[in-house]
Design goal:
Chain A is an alpha+beta fold. The first copy, chain A, is about 25% helix and about 30% strand. In chain A, strands 1, 2, 3, 4, 5, 6, 7, 8, 9, 10, 11 and 18 form a twelve-stranded mixed beta sheet that branches. In chain A, strands 15-14-17-19 form a four-stranded antiparallel beta sheet. Chains A, B, C, D: GO terms for molecular function: 5'-3' DNA exonuclease activity; 5'-3' RNA exonuclease activity.
Chain lengths: ~375, ~375, ~375, ~375
């Protein structure tokens, strides 16, 4: 009898519980700092419910997103794949969106209207988001679906292009279909992270064809079962938006201002990934140890991701290994052997788990003025 | 892309994870020993899905039940309360059952066909389980619904009779409606535990009117959110059945052979609760400490519930407090001061968290022959 | 090289770590509220170091006590049992005290000067605390040792009187020696809890002979290994002192104002245990649930012990079991069915794990005025 | 009263507890596989007790080592720094060794006889292990102490050469003293890891002067407080010995067959570190995913250290990030996109947290024959 109330209240309880999690786990509520000029918005734009081949009502997706501290989600039901059609014979393909919108009304979560255009290879699966009406996008011919999406000013991205069910080598194959869509400005993004899978070949395609880099959960079941209870976070696209609004997210996606995040894996164009990492590590204090030339620097990882760094400064560390993990939310000290006392030094860390291109990890610099 | 597969596989992974939980928590997979003459079957016969006012597809309920190690569940959709009717306009009220049956096919879980007959007070909510067809039970007049359920040989129980929404004092009120149903053999059980709520006045009614004692989750959202992540187990009815079959469960329910379990709270008639507790604590070893008259006894709690005991033996404990918690699955030693070496002694423990009637906790005896 | 510094700093780090422990465990830093007229001081007056048969230097005992949040400790080295005498041939039996005093100087921990007078049965082991000089207490005849302790105005208590090594039945035997000491005002207290052992027969002796009730760790190795890592807290004597000073502790012990605490087991005279429990549970809020006669009361357990209660109010609970565990530091709600709205009600809880006499658990009452 | 027994038994209990630790933590009991031709023995040859400036009796060191699953320890008391001399005026500097030997008698732990020769810079601190008699090593002149150590056939290593108390830049400075000792075959090893500190400049010295690479805890307080409760493991030297004996360890140390280990940091000469890592990762299965050219490989990390790898194979991963952490004891799958089905492939992983020289991480290769 109390169940409904409990259910609605469980969100707040869970936020409290998760904030007390063991320090060595990454935390469930996702968190990233803004970068100069932009807000860093956490989005998951590839999600299913019972209105296509998912297994929960749209309200659960809203609650999951609130638990994960997301800013925006899109319920992208397959237009063409409807295994529950017998039971949910909805003539209006906007229902999932409408229900989520209603559920989110009293919460600080943006619902982006979206749909998944679903075909076999070489067309594959594609998400159209920021649509106005899902119904006319359901078309016999894929080309017509993409044209309609464009007409609605949708942002369209290619889902899991490296999926072995559609590409047995596990590599994405850019067919004429995609080339035409890109040429026609009907395909704008590409998933480099889909669910638990990352393909660096998809990243290569994104860079080569200037497609927006996307990361999504593609969740069908429960976020708890597929991610959280295995110690993982849901994959997201971090969108660098001028303000916290759906329109700004749309503008940012068309402009390619994103990085994809899955746990400690962060993938994006250098111009966004570098400032994100720079903002993520906060220098809290820097002091020379008494009677030494050893500079102790206190750093804080302000993100919800564990980060992996290699010290590539001009100076070696006094005590820790040059390769070290920096846990989500952790404050830690590193000590540089500067050989003489300096008024200013540069700390340079290579972010080993982050990629601006296949096999390319960015190096971030912080200029530090010791206190004494 | 991998999501569906992952989702289907998550069950096994979770069973592994949960078995490694902290020793001081009760474990998620529920477990109770059989009692002489009967199998102890774990059932939850009050569950909702999107087919009434719940929020998940029936397959999730099957997976939750497998994670909880249940033997049988029933999806008891409200016949009269259908908030998702606009989207799920099913003319056949048996759909939820059919989908669960299909999902459970490859698993060792029994699906009991059921429905909830839903009225305001004084009739209240009632579950009819082991029905053949839910459709004819949907009736204008409650009396007719109960009559149809009886025709189908359904076992019917009164849900959350103490619910303050229907009884502002929080006490169950047995109206003429219930009295008539009992007289007509149309009402056979009563929930003494519904979701997180236990009412000892409902237990009093069960005993007075010889109604079968029931405990159910009444879950609408997710078992994980409403129970597991708060450190609780889902409430169940433990059914003492002649064999592991739906027919045997039905026979046992009509015969009143149950106890209701919610975490460390276990409620049932003395004739079933006492043998259950007796079987639950296994005496593994009993030896006199060298050169003393102190008898050390090794006991194992073979259930998934923490149990609370008070030593009421003729002998006091040597070292532990007479009131002690016995964790789920734990092996622990108690030491009795028998004053002289005995060939046989009786260990008597009062089960403080278990009730055979309001405020009445049973005492269990084990006859023990020391090894030396 | 950094080790010493690290070692000294580890205390603060550990306090932070332990405060984040899992909510279902009792916490390491012990905490109990004051009672009307008295401060509740946490003491452990039975401890060993390398200066008798223990295995650590006295400074470790100071650090352990600070981690446990104690107010006072006494290093009570055996005067007569000196297994490390070959290596530590100290002519002055006050060394252990002196070192601890030095170590504690910069910390908020009181060091009580003490020694253990060690004999076989029937005299047994006895601790003399608040002594001035340990050396003259080392005597051939036990009677002389007790006389010297009295001369120094020491508070003397009988250690583990139920120890099966000295009493094979596991029951304490009050010999003429003890009777004489009591008569001569040379024996003032008795351990009812020693290390992990509780003997209710020792409690009976305490009550019969008006001896002060004591609980001690009797630690020889590491508190972490013997208690903490097994999920236990160290046993203590809670002393109700007029102020936070060694003199006040001494006065309170002579006056018998104590309770012994080991995890959830709390043992003491009714006049101290009842006000302690009353202060331990704080009523934070009481409101009637809307449109009902169900009074929801928010309670906080302000102690570091899990407490076990049975509702023995005039009203039954709306939802929870009448027997329930109240975790250390937890805030929880109970709901009373008062049948009509009251301006004032009395909540009565029996503290099942607490004892004022063998098998006697106290009942505590709180008068509550609902807000609406 | 039970305390002593409990203390002695606590070891086994703790081994059980620690084996159930959270899967994401490295485990307390250290474990590494043997390498071809040698046993991998876990040693800590720099430890203090109350017999110099430590704070525990030698038996605690034996118990700590057993909990950590070590094969050998050495209690290396400072010969010249004796802060407890007033209380422990031992004329025989072999006492600590003798007590540990007695304590270890019934356990499978080797006790290496050792001492620390303690001077200020430039001589610094040096451990002599496998000595016969500590007393004659106590000398006014350091040269004489080293000569005596050599006479006893001791293996001598330079402790924490980068310690800022002795070298304010935090860099080790090889003085004429060390050069002479090396030339005279009186100095054989160098700590590159001391307590929580790693200095790659010390590693450079080791390689340049062919000194044996050492890692030690230098523990003075408790392993639990300085390492375990902070989520760290104690630093050790892994010695590759022909058999499990003190003589074999001595032979291996003179021959330079070691790697130093502290958590995920593993430092050693390439000829030992590469086979260690190769043995550490076990290929359990390799199968092509159905209808694909994606080869799934199941790997097991058989060590107690989390390891950090980068995929540098000729093939990219199908799903995981090329940079990944491999937890202690974990079994995980990686999938290679081999583009066509191969009968044999080579998996190449660079061990990012392991060093064979400053900034040089080794790459390990495994030849794998897929099953299908």
């Amino acid at each position: 009898m109390k169940t409904k109330l409990l259910f609605l209240c469980s969100l707040m309880a869970s936020l409290i519980v998760t904030s007390q999690q063991h320090e060595h786990q990454s935390s469930r509520p996702l968190s990233f700092p803004d970068i100069p000029g932009y807000k860093s918005l956490k989005t998951d734009l590839h999600i299913h419910t019972v209105f296509s081949d998912g297994y929960v009502w749209p309200n659960i997706r809203v609650m999951e997103a609130l638990r994960d501290n997301l800013d925006a989600i899109s319920l992208t039901e397959h237009l063409e794949y409807q295994p529950h059609l017998e039971d949910i014979p909805h003539p209006d393909r906007n229902r999932s969106y409408a229900i989520a919108l209603e559920e989110a009304k009293e919460h600080d979560l943006m619902i982006v209207h979206g749909s998944e255009i679903t075909r076999s290879a070489p067309i594959g699966h594609n998400n159209a988001v920021f649509i106005k009406d899902a119904n006319p996008i359901l078309q016999d011919k894929a080309e017509k679906a993409f044209a309609e999406a464009k007409k609605q000013n949708a942002f369209v991205f290619w889902n899991h292009p490296a999926w072995h069910n559609q590409s047995p080598t596990g590599n994405p194959i850019l067919s004429d279909f995609q080339k035409d869509r890109i040429k026609n400005d009907e395909l704008h993004g590409i998933e480099v992270i889909n669910s638990v899978d990352y393909a660096q070949e998809s990243l290569a395609l994104a860079l080569e064809h200037n497609l927006t880099i996307m990361g999504t959960s593609d969740i069908h079941g429960l976020i708890d079962w597929d991610y959280t209870e295995k110690g993982n976070q849901r994959p997201i696209t971090l969108v660098f938006a001028k303000e916290r609004s759906i329109e700004s997210i749309q503008e940012a996606l068309f402009a390619g201002r994103t990085v994809a995040v899955y746990n400690e894996l962060i993938v994006g164009k250098e111009e966004f990934l570098v400032p994100l990492l720079k903002a993520s590590i906060v220098v809290e204090k820097a002091t020379y140890l008494r009677n030494t030339q050893v500079l102790e620097i206190e750093l804080k990882n302000s993100t919800s991701s564990n980060l992996l760094f290699e010290n590539v400064s001009d100076y070696t560390f006094y005590d820790s290994s040059p390769v070290f993990e920096f846990k989500a939310g952790e404050t830690k000290k590193v000590a540089l052997k500067t050989l003489e006392k300096k008024n200013e030094i540069t700390l340079k860390l290579k972010a080993l788990g982050c990629f601006t291109a296949p096999k390319v990890s960015p190096t971030i610099s912080w200029t530090i003025s010791p206190e004494n």
